[in-house]
Design brief:
The protein is of the alpha+beta class. Helix content is 21%, strand content 23%.
C-alpha cells in the first residue's frame, strides 16, 4: 500500500509496479480536501512549477539523469509537459498532473483508491507530505512519540498574469540560458536592489513617500503586492514612511533580524521576499506598532 498521490507517492507506486509488485495507491482527494490543492489530480503541483536545473554539471541535473535511467514516472511526465524555462525543467502544471495520472491509472499493477487513510499501513509507504490530513498526522505523531511534525520547504507563490503591470516588466532568460524570453523580469534601481535584496536601509528623509498624505495603497515595488494603506500611515518623526498596521497581516512576513549587534523584527513582502523594513512596538494606537518602511521598497497607488 502507498498512501499519498503526490509526487513521492506516485513515484513510489510506479517504481514498485514496474518491478512486478501489485500496489494500492490511496489518495484522499477529492473526498478530503486540502488548503492548497485545486484539483483531485495526482501529483498536482501546488508550489513551484520548476524542477530546477537540468544541466548535468549541477546536483539537480545529475539526479534527474539518474531518475530517467531508472524509469521515473515524474521525469517522464515532466518531459512531456515541459515549457520554456531556460536551463530549468519547468512544466505546465495541468499537463504534468494529467500525464502522471494517465500513466498511473493505466498501469495493470496499480489500483487507485480515493479516500482518507487514518492508520499506518504495514507493509506500506506513507508519502503524504506537508498536507497530511489531521487524522493521519495524529497517528504518525503517536507512532513517532512526538506531538508535532515539521516539514521544511521553499515557497514559490503563484502569481496571476493579469495582476501584473507588463509595462514595468521585460522578458529575458536567466543567466543567459534558454531562448531569451522565458522569464518575466522586474527591474530594480541600484538603491532598490540594495534595500530589497541586500537588506540595506535608505537614508532618513530621502523618500518622498515619507511626506505623502494622499489616499491610496502602498504596494511592493518589486511584485506590486498591496502592503500598506494610507489609512494606517502616520508621521513617526523618524524620516521613514511609517504605518501602524499592514493592509493584510498575511501580505507581510516577519523574521528575527540579529544584524548590527541588535535584535529587531524584519518585515518582508510575503509574495517575493523583498526586504521592506522593520516593525517596532513604539507605535500609536490601536496596535501600538510602528512599521518603519524604506520608501524605495514601496510604490504608491493613488485611490481612484
Amino acid at each position: 500500500m502507498v498512501v499519498g498521490g503526490g509526487l513521492a507517492g506516485s513515484e513510489a507506486a510506479w517504481a514498485l509496479a514496474e518491478r512486478g509488485v501489485r500496489v494500492t495507491l490511496h489518495e484522499m482527494r477529492p473526498l478530503v480536501r486540502t488548503p492548497a490543492h485545486q484539483t483531485d489530480g495526482l501529483a498536482e503541483l501546488v508550489c513551484s512549477n520548476s524542477f530546477k536545473s537540468s544541466e548535468l554539471v549541477t546536483p539537480h541535473g545529475l539526479l534527474k539523469a539518474e531518475m530517467r535511467r531508472l524509469g521515473s514516472i515524474i521525469l517522464q511526465a515532466a518531459d512531456q509537459a515541459r515549457v520554456p524555462g531556460g536551463a530549468a525543467l519547468a512544466v505546465d502544471r495541468v499537463a504534468f498532473s494529467a500525464a502522471v495520472q494517465e500513466r498511473v491509472t493505466a498501469h495493470p499493477n496499480i489500483t487507485l483508491v480515493r479516500g482518507e487513510v487514518t492508520a499506518l499501513p504495514s507493509p506500506g509507504v506513507v508519502a503524504t507530505g506537508p498536507l497530511t490530513s489531521a487524522a493521519l498526522s495524529e497517528v504518525i505523531g503517536a507512532r513517532l512519540g512526538t506531538r508535532g511534525l515539521a516539514f521544511f520547504d521553499a515557497i514559490a507563490p503563484i502569481v496571476a498574469d493579469e495582476s501584473l503591470d507588463h509595462t514595468r516588466l521585460y522578458r529575458a532568460s536567466r543567466y543567459g540560458k534558454g531562448a531569451g524570453d522565458d522569464y518575466l523580469n522586474a527591474p530594480l534601481t541600484a538603491e532598490q536592489y540594495n534595500v530589497m535584496r541586500q537588506k540595506g536601509t535608505e537614508a532618513p528623509y530621502s523618500s518622498p513617500l515619507n511626506d505623502l498624505h494622499e489616499k491610496g495603497t502602498f504596494v511592493c515595488a518589486a511584485c506590486e503586492l498591496p502592503l500598506f494603506s494610507s489609512a494606517t500611515k502616520f508621521d513617526s518623526g523618524t524620516g521613514w514612511p511609517s504605518f501602524w498596521a499592514p493592509i493584510k497581516k498575511e501580505n507581510v512576513r516577519e523574521e528575527v533580524d540579529n544584524s548590527l549587534s541588535m535584535t529587531r523584527t524584519e518585515v518582508l513582502c510575503a509574495r517575493c521576499d523583498a526586504h521592506s523594513g522593520h516593525v517596532f512596538d513604539d507605535g500609536p494606537k490601536p496596535t501600538g506598532l510602528r512599521y518603519c518602511m524604506n520608501g524605495v521598497a514601496l510604490r504608491f497607488v493613488r485611490k481612484p
